[in-house]
Automatic annotation (TrEMBL), chain A:
Family stated for the protein in its record: Belongs to the binding-protein-dependent transport system permease family. FecCD subfamily.
Chief place where the protein resides: membrane
Superkingdom of the source species: Bacteria
Gene Ontology CC annotation, any one: plasma membrane
Membrane-spanning ranges: 29-51, 86-103, 115-135, 141-161, 173-193, 221-240, 261-283, 333-350
GO MF annotations, alphabetized: transmembrane transporter activity
Subcellular location: Cell membrane
Protein name per the record: Iron ABC transporter permease
Membrane topology: Multi-pass membrane protein
Keywords: Cell membrane, Membrane, Transmembrane, Transmembrane helix, Transport
InterPro entries for this protein: ABC_BtuC-like, ABC_transptr_permease_BtuC
GO annotation (BP), single: siderophore-iron import into cell
Protein species of origin: Kribbella antibiotica
From TrEMBL, chain B:
Stored Pfam families: FecCD
TM ranges: 23-43, 77-95, 107-125, 131-152, 159-180, 207-225, 250-277, 289-309, 321-338
Signal peptide as annotated in the record: none
Membrane topology label: Multi-pass membrane protein
CDD domains recorded: TM_ABC_iron-siderophores_like
Keyword Transmembrane helix part of the UniProt annotation: yes
Keywords: Cell membrane, Membrane, Transmembrane, Transmembrane helix, Transport
GO cellular component: plasma membrane
Similarity remark: Belongs to the binding-protein-dependent transport system permease family. FecCD subfamily.
InterPro entries cross-referenced by the UniProt entry: ABC_BtuC-like (IPR037294), ABC_transptr_permease_BtuC (IPR000522)
An annotated GO BP: siderophore-iron import into cell
Cell compartments where the protein resides: Cell membrane
Annotated protein name in UniProt: Iron ABC transporter permease
């Protein structure tokens, strides 16, 4: 608001201020909320580095991060195990939250999870195929298989969804994705039922976990997720327009088909890489966007950053809890996220008035 | 003719065409279901010509054929048909309540609850057979009850019901996966077969349970179709038209859960049938509302064809029917999606 000297303009400015105040306070609250969420995320990150089956005091943790000493076992644990695991948790969490928000926006469907384009189904089938036919058993090998499967499946879904006169409409994409996922699931189960060893390998991957993921996996998936995060920040305005319906979006000057394809590519980058790194984790991407929407309202320019920060809090937080509740073993993060996140999610849904999609 | 009369004429003509179409679709589907049914009764280690199967069904076969058809093959085939029909109807109900083509008992938690309970019974308590079915029913009903209670807040909105269903479903799924990772691999695989959905070794007790269920639910749900149509206009409009929204929705949910629970107990959570039946039915009949009978017939057809393939297409190995349903239903739905012209509406 420009400072004004005359009475008249001051009056006008006051009127403007009254009408602008709710919006400005709302914005300030949203910014503050985001900063608070980031602070919480930083705390969770620290916890994730410090807490584990071997207790390491916080001072040693900070020491290890600042002056790494190879002869110190604690430092080695932190450097080779906990830091990569935390980085993967951060990346995977952000990727799942963002891709979930993007997917729900582009299909205009609250039931769409990031896997609805067939990403998880394709990844699972390729991983099972790799175990079944080639006897692969390392997480590093699964990464590329899962990524290839995710990409192949989502290209197929997009192609199938865009057949017919109108091209890829939200309903057609969602139905085609669900149909192809069911088909891939059938094939996956057929392989799992016919071979015990494959099933034995696969059941641990399919739960979704951050355990045993080293820096090699982090560096494999990081570029895809980082590019995806950057690209997704351009999607907010487009999704806002598209949430009004295709016709309105078109009349607002959006090239709907192109925009939808762009968003879909970003989703595949994010969710494909996340699934490749940690296995299929459904709950985070499905629910965090709803939580973000409850806080921010229907504006995707806010939903997206909130999703990107809130998701890793849930994922890393669950991972930390999974490490301590079942000592000396640990619970897979895919299990913990739902058990912790779902009651919280249900409470939120009951408490708040829902912003419809 | 005045323009008003003309308009009335055009509208009633369009309505008659649509009705004729629905009747034709139902007729063709019923024929297909019957043919598949007879073929599935005729195939097996001992092949019986389809003609003899039909004769036996109407009480005119010889002793050996009668034994094989009525004792061995009929229970399985009938269970399959009825499970499919129940799932198809259940899916139509849930998709209409939620006004969302992605909603089905598979997705909003009911079958996940049944699965978690059943896997607990198999893996932790070492149960088999009927006991597992009992646990599955208990799980489905308990899940649905918790879901409804949690979604209640001055009434239940469809959107809130779905979101809470997602939450509860997620917890149930995690429990299932947790149990699967903790069990010995052989037992876990046995649980996986149950989770896939199978019709192996079904006998007349399953047929009885399914018959009773359908005899109660089918007329109820067809009667409720009218109310479903109004619900699809949205809660406010339905209120405005004088519908008691809450009680209608509760009635529909109870019927939908009951159908899904009994079907799951009889054959495991056969995936995809409940999801795929209604959209196919809607596209075939071109009707805007939920097509209950058509959905039921498509569900029955998908399960019957899938079981035929699962039993006989892979030589010696018999797959559980749930493995095949996805492959049978999905391509057809995709074909319809690609062909249909009025997309974006209905779904």
């Amino acid at each position: 608001m420009p400072p004004s000297s005359t009475v008249d303009s001051a009056g006008r400015a006051a009127t403007a201020a009254v009408s602008a105040r709710p919006r400005r306070t709302r914005r300030a609250i949203l910014v503050l909320g985001l900063v608070g969420a980031i602070a919480l995320l930083a705390l969770v990150v620290l916890l994730s580095i410090a807490v584990g089956s071997k207790q390491i005091p916080l001072s040693t943790v900070i020491d290890a991060l600042r002056h790494y000493d190879e002869s110190n076992t604690d430092h080695v644990i932190i450097h080779s195990l906990r830091v990569p695991r935390t980085i993967i948790g951060l990346l995977v969490g952000a990727a799942l939250g963002l891709s979930g928000a993007l997917m729900q926006g582009v299909t205009r469907n609250p039931l769409a999870d990031p896997g609805i384009l067939g990403v998880n189904g394709g990844a699972a089938l390729f991983v099972v195929g790799g175990i079944y036919w080639f006897g692969l058993a390392s997480l590093t090998a699964y990464v590329w298989l899962a990524f290839a499967g995710a990409a192949a499946a989502s290209v197929a879904v997009y192609f199938l969804g865009s057949l017919g006169r109108e091209g890829a409409t939200p309903v057609k994409l969602a139905l085609a994705g669900a149909a192809l996922t069911a088909m891939l699931g059938s094939l996956t189960t057929a392989l799992l039922i016919s071979d015990v060893d494959t099933f034995d390998q696969f059941r641990f991957w399919s739960v979704g976990s951050l355990a045993g993921r080293g820096s090699d996996i982090a560096s494999q998936v990081a570029p895809f997720i980082l590019i995806g995060i950057v690209l997704s920040m351009f999607c907010g305005r487009v999704l806002n327009a598209m949430s009004l319906g295709d016709e309105v979006a078109k009349s607002l000057g959006q090239r709907v088909g192109l925009a939808r394809l762009f968003v879909a590519v970003v989703v595949v980058l994010l969710c494909g890489a996340a699934t490749a790194a940690a296995g299929p984790i459904g709950f985070v991407g499905l629910t965090i966007p709803h939580v973000a929407r409850l806080i921010t309202g229907p504006d995707y320019r806010w939903i997206l950053p909130y999703s990107a920060v809130l998701s890793p809090i849930l994922l890393l937080g669950s991972d930390v809890i999974g490490r301590v509740v079942a000592l000396p073993g640990e619970l897979q993060v895919g299990i913990v996220t739902a058990v912790i996140g779902a009651p919280f999610f249900i409470m939120l849904v009951r408490r708040r008035k829902l912003a419809d999609l | 003719m005045t323009t008003a009369e003309e308009a009335v004429h055009i509208i009633s003509h369009a309505r008659a065409v649509r009705q004729a179409r629905t009747v034709a679709v139902i007729g063709v589907l019923a024929m297909l279901v019957f043919v598949t049914f007879c073929v599935s009764l005729s195939l097996g280690d001992f092949k019986i010509p389809v003609i003899d199967v039909v004769k036996t069904l109407f009480g005119g076969g010889d002793k050996a054929t009668e034994f094989i058809v009525n004792r061995l093959r009929l229970p399985r085939a009938l269970t399959g048909l009825m499970v499919g029909a129940a799932l198809g109807m259940s899916g139509a109900i849930f998709q209409s309540i939620a006004r969302n083509p992605l909603a089905s008992p598979d997705i909003i938690g009911v079958t996940y609850g049944a699965s978690a309970f059943a896997v607990f019974a198999i893996v932790t308590l070492g149960m088999t057979g009927l006991a597992v079915s009992g646990f599955a029913i208990a799980g489905a009903i308990l899940t649905a009850f918790i879901m409804y209670v949690l979604a209640w807040r001055h009434g239940v909105s469809s959107y809130r019901l779905i979101l809470i269903g997602i939450g509860i479903g997620a917890i149930a799924t995690s429990i299932t996966s947790f149990l699967l990772t903790k069990a010995r691999v052989e037992i876990a695989q046995q649980a996986l077969i149950w989770l896939t959905g199978s019709l192996n070794g079904r006998d007349w007790s399953n047929v009885q349970a399914m018959t009773v269920t359908l005899a109660i639910s089918a007329p109820l749900s067809v009667w409720l179709v009218h109310r479903l149509r109004i619900l699809q206009l949205g809660d406010e409009t339905a209120y405005g038209l004088g519908l008691r929204v809450e009680s209608s929705r509760l009635g529909l949910i109870v019927v939908g859960v009951f159908l899904a629970a009994v079907a799951t107990a009889a054959a495991g959570p056969i995936g995809f049938v409940a999801f795929v039946g209604p959209p196919i039915a809607r596209r075939l009949t071109r009707s805007p509302g939920p097509a209950m009978i058509t959905s039921a017939l498509i569900g029955a057809l998908v399960v019957a064809v899938s079981d035929l393939i699962a039993q006989h297409a892979f030589g010696e190995t018999q797959l559980p029917v749930g493995v095949v349903t996805g492959v049978v239903g999905a391509p057809y739905l995709m074909y319809l999606l690609a062909r249909t012209n009025r997309v974006g509406s209905g779904g």
